[in-house]
Amino acid sequence: MTGYSETFRGDVSTWEVDSTEHFTVAYYYEKFEAATWRFLRQAGVDPAAARTTEALTHYKAELRGRDIYRVETAVIEAGETPTIAHRLFNAETGGLCTTMQQTLSGISLAGPAVQWDGDAREERPVPSDDAGWVPALSDIARPSEVDWAGNLSLAGYIHRFSTANSFIMSAFGMTSEYMIKNRIGLSTFEFQLVFHGQAKPGDMIDVESCIAQLGGSSMRLYHRMRNAETGADIAGLSQFGVQLDLDARRPSRIADDLRERAQVLLATG
After folding, report:
1. Residue-range domains of the chain with CATH
2. What gap in Å lies between CA 36 and CA 34, rounded to an integer?
3. Are 247 and 169 in contact (CB under 8 A)?
4. pLDDT in tens, 184-204
5. How does the average pLDDT of the chain come out, rounded?
6. Rounded Cα distance, 166 and 71, in Å
7. What's the confidence (pLDDT) of residue 1?
8. By C-alpha distance, which of 129, 195, 205, 216 is closest to 164?
9. Residue pair 89/72 in contact by the 8 Å Cβ criterion
10. Distance (Å, rounded) from C-alpha 210 to C-alpha 222?
11. 136: closest CA among 169, 184, 112, 113?
């Protein structure tokens, strides 16, 4: 398809692999952030003026240690709040691994826009205050984590949401010890990320998490990030994933005893 330009090339470094033994989701966002910067610069737009308001990401195939990849980017919706799309390919096999639709504010992009032929957004409800929220992170945004505009980088947000995963999963028994013993992990296949504000160096951050949906092998977790001093909403992440058998590299059914505990935390509205 025409209209895309290459914006990034890289490989999966050892320190970018997580406990599920594949490319850590936060590092996808680090590379997409770099791809956005290059794309906007090449379009004659100041990237430092751009703010991400939403990002919809679908993870389709794994990247593992030493894999090489490339990113292509295009405008799929022009105007005052444009949406750009990134497609990440395994550079060796040519296989499409990940797509991201990123909506921006603070800049405008002219057309023509490329017609998006990837996954559509599915509306997923945000759990109410009555859900089984678990305190999942208390942290501070560090100066070393900011982007070129001085805000917490996209990867900085996702690293914190990943930490929050560990707390909400531990709350129903899917602890690190359990996952190591049973050779399982959580493999994400969709992120719906929404920003309500920005975190800057020195800001104190809290995250609460809950279980929004529960399937046979799948679950949707929802995380809400707030400024710990003001209570203002910063970001929300809806994360869909499956329990992954690390040896077979296939989804596996969540154990019944864990499912019973998870039901207690399941959002009902």
Report:
1. 1-121 (3.10.129.10), 124-269 (3.10.129.10)
2. 5
3. no
4. 999 999 999 999 999 999 999
5. 95
6. 29
7. 46
8. 205
9. yes
10. 5
11. 169
- Residue 166: partners with Cβ closer than 8 Å, 6 or more residues away: 136, 176
Q: Please write the tens of the pLDDT for every residue from 134-167.
A: 999 999 999 999 998 899 999 999 999 999 999 9
Other beta carbons within 10 Å of 119: 13
Tokens of 19: 């406990």
Structural contact between residues 75 and 82, judged by C-beta atoms closer than 8 angstroms:
yes
- The identity of residue 191, as a single letter, is F
Q: Determine contact, residues 19/244, Cβ cutoff 8 Å.
A: no
User: What distance in Å separates the CA atoms of residue 233 and residue 219, rounded to the nearest whole number?
Assistant: 24
- CA 76 to the chain's CA centroid: 20
Whether omega before 82 lies within 30 degrees of 0, making that bond cis, reads no
Q: Beta partners for 68?
A: 11
